[in-house]
Amino acid sequence: MKKLILASAVLAVFAGSHAQAEEKKPDHEISFNASVVSDYRYRGISQTRLKPALQGGADYTHNPTGFYAGTWLSTIKWIKDTGGDGNVEWDIYGGKRGEIVKDVSYDVGVLRYQYPSNALTPSPNTTEIYGQVGYGPGYVKYSHSLTNLFGFADSKRSGYLDAGANLEVGEGLTLNLHAGHQKVKNNSSFSYTDWKVGVTKDFGIATASAALIGTNTDKYVGRDGKNLGKNALLVSVAKTF
Asked: What is the pLDDT of residue 24?
């Protein structure tokens, strides 16, 4: 299944025809984003000891080809909780997206998770490649680590498989559904499944969201002894400009 997803996405890069957009976009697009979240959860696990985070990033897209690149940052706490000295996650990514046939989309790329000023061994810095295939509002995605995964020893070639859908249920209102499974290579006790059910509302000046999120693991524990993967209600406010 994983190989099929990646193969379909990679083949799509070379597909010769793409659906014509109803409204022509500029060749070059740059956007910025900023958000406040009640808890930064990544693949269901809190990165901020169940506390709020500030986040922001920038994206560039070359619309004629579908190539894109971007960067994103968030405040975090887990590096310090595990003995390091960093409090920021810095992501750098790039890839290509487009359509295979009408309503069938693809997205392939590489993503680097960087944790500046950390002092952990093995290093938490992680590089993944990913491939996604979508149909309408739904998608299936597989991410594959080329390095150790977030500081787990001997965890190269770990994988994360997820599926979801973002369904319009009203004017400016979207239902967000997600389920995923993280496999941690050679560290099977830390493998787990996560899920999310949420709603997003676009108010024009900003977008607000609320989601129930959780996992089936209690192996990820913060410095205060709390389960970082416990079921919880998260809220956020974001702005793209």
From this structure: 81
The DSSP bridge partners found for residue 35 are: 55, 238
Report d(CA 217, CA 219) in Å as an integer: 6
DSSP 17: -
CB neighbours of residue 214 within 10 Å: 17
Q: Residue 12: give the domain boundaries.
A: 2-240
Stretch 120-141: mean pLDDT: 97
Q: Has residue 198 got a pLDDT over 80?
A: yes
Take residue 232 and report the two structure tokens written for it.
Answer: 């919880």
Amino acid, res. 225: G
Torsion of CA 200, 203, 204, 209, to 10 degrees: -30
CA end-to-end span of the chain: 37
Report the distance separating Cα 51 and Cα 35, nearest Å: 14
Total domains in the fold of the chain: 1
- Torsion region of 92: left, alpha or beta (phi above 0 gives left; psi -120 to 50 gives alpha): beta
Domain harbouring 221, CATH code: 2.40.160.40
